[in-house]
Amino acid sequence: MKIKLKAILTVTTLALTSFQSMADWSGDITLQDRYFLHDPLPQNPQQHNNYLSISSEIEYYNDLDSDNKSITFTPFVRIDQYDDERTHGDIRELQYQQVFDSWELRLGISKVYWGVTESQHLVDVINQTDNVENTDGEDKLGQPMIKASFERDWGTVDVFILPYFRERTFQDVDGRPRSSPAVDTDQVDYESTDNEQNIDYAMRWFRYFGDLEIGLAYFNGTSREPLFRRPTNNTNSLSLYYPQMQQASIDAQLTTEEWLWKFEAIARDWQNNDSNDQLFDEQFFAMTGGFEYTFVGVFESDADIGLVSEYLYDNRGEEATAIFQNDIMMGLRLAMNDADSSEALFGVIYDLDNQERLISLEASTRFAESWTATLEIRGFNNIHRLSRLKGIEEDDFVQLDIAYYF
Prior knowledge:
Blueprint (H helix, E strand, L loop, with lengths): L1 H18 L5 E12 L13 E13 L6 E12 L7 E12 L3 E8 L32 E10 L2 E8 L20 E8 L9 E10 L2 E11 L4 E3 L8 E5 L1 E13 L2 E14 L7 E16 L8 E11 L11 E10 L7 E9 L5 E11 L3 E11 L15 E9 L1
Parallel strand pairs: 8-12
Antiparallel strand pairs: 1-2, 1-21, 2-3, 3-4, 4-5, 5-6, 6-7, 7-9, 9-10, 10-13, 11-12, 13-14, 14-15, 15-16, 16-17, 17-18, 18-19, 19-20, 20-21
């Protein structure tokens, strides 16, 4: 891990030096304190109750003295007090972009987001999850890609060629929250004989129909979600296997005055030809759908309160590799609409089969001119002994981030 981080820092330093004379910079430096409310499980004596870390994400942008050409470079680095796997660096973006008369081209490393729902992001399959950053799946690693976008009267089409695969990050034995047993990221196998150099491709069509926005997508390549192999007699850690998959998806959002209706669904053909496991060719359907209703100007103030509700479904039931297969999410969103952009989102995801509850609170506000404070609370309640969440039942935590922006 230290070698990987050193390589990232070296590339970043060289790039910063090269671009210094024509730099247009922005970014942040963030100090984070993550405190766990309970002692670690007895089988995890390496873990701690308090983790300090510092991170920075910097963005360099240059329009190359042109209205249709630009370069973006966004390195990220985090140094964690205990977790060597969370001490890591990544190039979130390093891309060249050019706009032609009827289409747009992006080359390099970039991030792409698909989806509309709040509780999970089913259709978002281009970038790999940076799992050591947070448990919500919203932090992503940079993905090498060639992207071409074509805008027409009948919609926008994005075509992707993805020449290199990024493996998901996982916590070290010292890290929290994490599964039990821990994941050994050095023990990785692929269905593709090309391993991480398998060439994936994807396509997405997107269009607005008045208040309705809808996207249809197709992906063919290495699954961003790995399968976990159980430990053998010679090891006490999980190993990883990345199968090939084909996935068709739809995401849609309808805005009607105070109502916001959201829907995502996927149909996946997930092939597992792993010689160490039973051969299967799994086809399944999953969806997330719901609404957000906003009470505008509550109590004659500038504040808005939104009521959020979503249903999460996977037709594999308890055999699903995902943690959500028959769950409901309820939440409240508060937007103060003040000069400091103060906002908060509280949510609970409740498993209708085994009564597990995932609780989250995210709140942020700006103070002074260039400073932001973010409070995050995560709770894991009534975790079933056979659940895929086993190992984090004592990992409720409170996290405070203080960020300086420049």
